[in-house]
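Why does residue order matter? Because the sequence determines the fold. Keep that principle in mind as you read this record.
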Amino acid sequence: MNDIECATDFAWLPKVELHCHIEGTMRPATVVDLAVANDIELPTRDVESLFQYEDLTGFLDVFWLVQSVLATPDDWERLAFESMIDGAAHGLRYREAFFTPARHLAAGQDLGEIIAALDRGLDMAERITRARCALILDFDRDFGAAAADAHMTELVSLKRAGRPGTERVIGIGMDSTELGVDPMSFVSAYSQAPEAGLRRTAHQGENSGADAIRAAVDGLGCERIDHGISIFEDPELVRRFADEQIPLTVCPNANVRINPGVVADLGDHVFPIMRDADLLATLNTDDPALVGLDLDQEYALCAETFGYDTGDMVAIALDAACASWLDDCDASVLMVEIKAAAAGAARAAADARSAAEARPLMPLSA
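Structure:
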C-alpha cells in the first residue's frame, strides 16, 4: 500500500491524531538498522517486503518483530524522533501516541528509561517541526491483568518522583487481542488512573462486541474508545455516545488492511455511519508504517470513498482537536489554526477559479 495515490490532497490541513502506536510508525529501514545493530534475526532485510501480512494474526507477528528491535534507550529515542518527523511531513500538528512496553519490561528493560528516551526523541523532533506529541501507556492484554497492574503502579511512582519525560505520559490504554478477554479483568490498573491524573481509553470493538465497549466505559472509566466499530450492535449505546460525545478514534484503512475478516473494503466501513449518527468519530492511521499510508492519505482515501468534501474533512479535523486530551486553551488554539488553514485553502481555490475564468480563450486555428 505504499504506492497509494489519491486525487484529493489534504497536506494543507493541520491534523490531530489520537490513535497511533509509535512502534507502528517505525521506518522499514530503521527496523533493519536496529536489527543489525542488536544482532536480531529478521525474516528478510528487503525493506519492501518486511511489512507483509494477510490478516490480524500476521500483522501482530510483524508488530512484535518491530518491537523486538527496540533493545536500548537510543533505539526508542530514534523511533520517537523519526516518528514525529514523518508525521509532521503530512500535516500532523498534535498526536497522542500509544507505546506498549510490556515485552520490553518482561525482558528487563526499565520503564523510566524507555519514557525518558521517548521524551528525548520527541523533544528533538518538536524543536524541528511545529508538531507536538503526548504519550499513552498501553497495556498489552496478552501479558494479563497482573502485568498491567504492575506497570501502572510503576508509572504512577515514576510520575510522582518527577522522572524525566513522565509529564508527557497523559493517559493509559490497552491493546492487542480483544477476543476472549474481559475488559473488567484490568479494573485494578485502571482504578489507579484518576488519582494519578491519567486519562483512560481502551481498544475495544474491533474484535469484540458492543458489550465490551460498554464495559470499558462503565467499568473502567474510559473517556474514549479506540476503534469501536461494533458499537452499532447496541442502539442505546450509540445514542449515549452521541449524547455524551464520547470520542471514538477510528482507523478505517488500518481496519481493512489488518483485519479484512471484519472490514473487507473501505466502502464497507462504518465510519460514515458513525458520523451520520452524530458520533464523535475521528480519523487515525493506527500503525502508518505497517499499514503503508500516512495521515494525508487516510484523509484523502476516506474523502474519496465516503464522498466527503473539504468542509467535511475540516469538521473531522476539528472534532479530533475536541476529542483530544489537550486542555481547553490548547485545543482552542489548535482549532483556530485548523479554521485559518481551511479559510486560506478556500481563498486559494477561489483565486484559482477566478484566474481560470479570466483567462482569454485561445482562438481556433484556421
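The longest helix spans residues 328-358.
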